[in-house]
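re the bet — no i am not wrong, look at it urself. input seq straight from the record:
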Amino acid sequence: MKKLFALLLILTGTKAFAADLKSYSVTVKDGKFSPEQITVAKGEKFKLEVKNDGNAAEEFESTELNREKIVAAHQTITVLLGPLSEGEYKFFGDFHPDTAKGKIIVK
């Protein structure tokens, strides 16, 4: 029982923590991200909301950020990130890698 309570406490705390983070948004549609770049502060933990306005699924992927997540058509996902060091971190849509490109600039 104590272990279950501790797990619930951790999960609830994580959700509360995520709700307090600064949020940035990108939209993917027709094989393109908009905006194609966002700028965040160095050392900041944040959440990236990825909204798919298209009629087909897309995959948000970044090897530099070690993230990979499917975004179903007309759905939104949340990607928790940071803190990041200064630099540029590229992401792309794995189903449209030639056109669905973006980056996070950390200053």
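see?? The helical segments are 2-20. told u. also The chain has one helix and nine strands. so pay up
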